[in-house]
Every structure is written in structure tokens, then in C-alpha cells.
Design a protein that fits this description.
With 418 residues, this protein is α+β, with helices and mostly antiparallel strands. The protein is built from 12 helices and 19 strands. The strands form 4 sheets. Strands 13-12-9-10-11-14-18-16 form an 8-stranded antiparallel β-sheet, sandwiched between helices. Strands 3-2-1-4 form a 4-stranded parallel β-sheet, sandwiched between helices. Helix 1 links the parallel strand 1 and strand 2. The protein is globular, with a radius of gyration of 21 Å. This is ATP-grasp domain-containing protein.
Length: 418
């Protein structure tokens, strides 16, 4: 199809190391038009055209979408940027193309609204409360029972999320969560959620929803660290993951999406596998981050960028039924302390070393600060394959040992004045 017959509108595209593969496969599937905050550079090879505007201004995005649609039919809308999925839902609604629905996307972005909606529908949830100050946070925590998780209302990527085991820790966690909320959408600024801590492994499931019918595409097993924070250190994906066919998991996911009335789109749902079964941590109205969709492409043959375009056009995505059983994982490199980067190097991807990809995420001179000062302060990543989870983790360990970070400490006085 030529762009004269219509385009799929992509609102925002994210950082090149994390999202280029999605834009590439989406562009291969269908002509794309990009809404972006800066002039396109590396994106140009994958798109038909672009509009440069303030993507955080929803009214401006809607006006630009109407103007584009008047000259080039917009057949679908895609966004994998957490901050822009609400605008994408409004555009889909305005233009009458397949979309999740505005209330469904709010059911993903607004975690307080999501908790209430899922609880009312009988979907397993942690006990929770939304609070406006640290005294209220302590009262809710004492009602729930320690430990508790304190998190922003509308954040993502575990930014501002921390574990609290007593009243003093709750007060600190509330301040961290509330501070993080001011870095996101104005609609979710201030306050924090206090939730029951769920014991058990944490997973994520990326799934496709077409006409309200949910289909899981791939599962990722998450590794977190930097206690009491939940910094995401790595993920594992496999085509042979038995959880994809688990009836309790599939039922929980389908009921959750039905509860928020999600119609068309790709979602990234995080869950804990607890003693009482799968429990929803949150539903995100977009493809997963942290290169999880790329792991799935390596491990399962699912092409997430193409799948996002298919669903945006109202079609069921192609999901391969057969794939060579293997596990693929990503591991992210973090500094041991706050620092100023001098150089970073990563190992080569060779035929026999199990490394599928590796890249540097920062430039010399970058300042990396660990939680709670900043989150996702990564300097590199490696993606590796193995025959089973243990083998994959061993290959990841070996690859990460070959990542070299040269840096000098970022002194507290410098950090405070930066």
C-alpha cells in the first residue's frame, strides 16, 4: 500500500537504542507518519513523513492529526510511549479508527483508577489506598500491614516505586513517589499509592486486544534490584514458556482487560505469581519497554512492531506457532555509585558466544545517579541466548563481565548543585 492510500500515525518513538527496532518493523509493515518533538534524523528511513510539534500538548496533537487526516487518510494510531498513550487514544477516538478507548487507557495510566476498577470487577488485587501526605500514608500502611509498596499514581518503569517496612520508611517512600509524580503527566501529579506487598515471582505479559478479545503474545520474567527500590535489572523470554498456556493466568488477563473495556491495542501487563494465583500489578496500554519486545522477536519470532500496526488497523496480528525452543535475556549495566562517565565498551556479538546484541546507552560526560536521586541510570545492555533459563543467565553473566565502564565519582556537592 502507498502512503496516498493511508498511513498509520505513530505518536512519539522513544530513544533510538530502546525503540528503533519497533519503528523499523512497523514501517516495514505499513507506511508510517510520525508525530515527534524534534526533527527526525535516524527515524527518516522508516517513515513516509513527519510532523514536528509539542507531543505533550494534547490539543496540538489532536489538531495536527485532523490536519494530516484531511490530506492523507490516517488508518490507525500507535504509541509505545507511556506519556503519549492518552493522546493516542484521543486521536483514535477523534478520527474513528480502532483504539483502546479513552476510558480504557485511563484505566492503564491512572493506577488508582485501575485498582478500583479491577477490584470492583473481582480481579485479584493487592490491598491499597491512595494518600495525599505522609501521615495518611503511614495510617494506610498500618491498616494493610508491613511491608508495603509505595508508588506514583501514573508512573512507569518502576520509577519512584519503593518498599517500606516501617513508618519511617513509608514517609521516605511517600516523598520519593510523590517527587517522581511531578516528572510525568500533570493529571497524575501529587499523592501516592500505598499497596500490599505481593510475594512471588514477577512477570510481564505483552498481549494483543482486537475487538475486546485478549490474546497473550509473550511472557517475560523480571529481575529487580537496588532494595528498597524496584530497579529493573533484566528480563528473560522464551518461546517454550509454559505460562503462555496457563489457564489461571490467561483468565486473569482476559478478565482484567474486559474490566477496563480495552478494545484495540497492545498492552504490557505486570503480574506477581502469588500463593493465591496471578495478581495484577498494573496494566500498561502499550508495548513493554526494556527491550522486552526485542527479546520476544529473538526468542519467539513474534514481530512486535508489526503486531502493533496490525492491531491499530483492526486486524489480528500474526503470531508464529512454531519457534526453536530457547531462552533470550537482557541485562542492564549500572554503575556502583553516582558517577560521571568517561567511556563504556561492550563485547562483540559473535556466532559462538551467545551474545545476540550489545550496545552503549550513554555518551562520555553523562552523569549517572542511582535511586532515589534518579532511576534507570544505565550505561549499557547485553542480550544473550541460552538453552534454558540457567544457561541464559550464565551467558548473560559472562557477557556483562566484559562490559567496561570507566568513570569518576560524582561527588555529593556536585550532584546537589547540578
Amino acid at each position: 500500500m502507498s502512503s496516498a492510500e493511508g498511513v498509520v500515525l505513530v505518536i512519539g518513538c522513544g530513544m533510538r537504542p530502546y525503540r528503533e527496532y519497533l519503528l523499523a518493523s512497523a514501517g516495514h509493515r505499513h507506511p508510517l507518519w510520525l508525530f515527534t518533538g524534534t526533527e527526525p534524523t535516524w527515524q527518516e528511513r522508516y517513515i513516509t513523513g513527519a510532523t514536528v510539534l509539542d507531543t505533550q500538548d494534547q490539543d496540538a496533537v489532536l489538531a495536527a492529526a485532523r490536519a494530516l487526516h484531511a490530506t492523507t487518510p490516517v488508518l490507525g494510531v500507535v504509541s509505545w510511549d507511556e506519556a503519549l498513550i492518552v493522546a493516542a487514544a484521543h486521536v483514535a477516538d477523534e478520527l474513528g479508527v480502532p483504539g483502546a478507548g479513552i476510558s480504557a487507557i485511563e484505566g492503564c495510566r491512572d493506577k488508582w483508577f485501575s485498582r478500583r476498577t479491577l477490584t470492583a470487577a473481582g480481579v485479584a488485587q493487592p490491598d491499597f489506598g491512595f494518600v495525599h501526605d505522609d501521615d495518611q500514608a503511614v495510617r494506610v500502611a498500618e491498616r494493610i500491614g508491613y511491608p508495603v509498596v509505595v508508588k506514583p499514581r501514573g508512573g512507569g518503569a518502576s520509577i519512584g516505586v519503593s518498599l517500606a517496612e516501617d513508618a519511617e520508611a513509608v514517609r521516605k517512600a511517600f516523598r520519593t513517589a510523590e517527587d517522581a509524580s511531578f516528572g510525568g503527566s500533570p493529571a497524575y501529579k501529587g499523592g501516592a499509592l500505598v499497596e500490599e506487598y505481593l510475594s512471588g515471582p514477577e512477570i510481564s505479559v505483552d498481549g494483543a486486544v482486537v475487538d475486546g478479545e485478549y490474546t497473550p503474545m509473550f511472557v517475560a520474567h523480571k529481575t529487580v534490584g537496588m532494595h528498597p527500590y524496584f530497579e529493573e535489572l533484566g528480563h528473560l523470554v522464551s518461546s517454550a514458556d509454559a505460562l503462555l498456556a496457563d489457564p489461571a493466568l490467561r483468565s486473569t488477563l482476559a478478565r482484567a482487560h474486559s474490566a477496563i473495556d480495552f478494545r484495540y491495542g497492545i498492552t504490557h501487563t505486570e503480574l506477581k505469581l502469588t500463593g493465591r494465583g496471578p495478581v495484577i500489578v498494573e496494566i500498561n496500554g502499550r508495548l513493554g519497554g526494556d527491550l522486552i519486545p526485542l527479546l520476544a522477536k529473538f526468542a519467539t519470532g513474534v514481530d512486535p512492531g508489526a503486531a502493533a500496526v496490525d492491531v491499530a488497523l483492526g486486524m489480528r496480528p500474526h503470531l508464529p506457532h512454531e519457534a526453536e525452543p530457547r531462552w533470550v535475556g537482557v541485562r542492564f549495566g549500572y554503575p556502583k555509585q553516582d558517577c560521571v562517565v568517561e567511556s563504556v565498551s561492550v563485547p562483540d556479538s559473535l556466532r559462538d558466544n551467545g551474545i545476540l546484541a550489545a550496545d552503549v546507552l550513554v555518551e562520555p560526560g553523562a552523569r549517572l545517579r542511582l535511586p532515589p536521586a534518579e532511576f534507570i541510570s544505565r550505561h549499557a545492555y547485553v542480550i544473550c541466548a541460552g538453552t534454558d533459563p540457567e544457561d541464559c543467565e550464565a551467558v548473560l553473566d559472562k557477557a556483562m563481565a566484559q562490559v567496561r565502564l570507566t568513570a569518576h565519582p560524582l561527588l555529593p556537592s556536585v550532584a546537589a548543585g547540578a
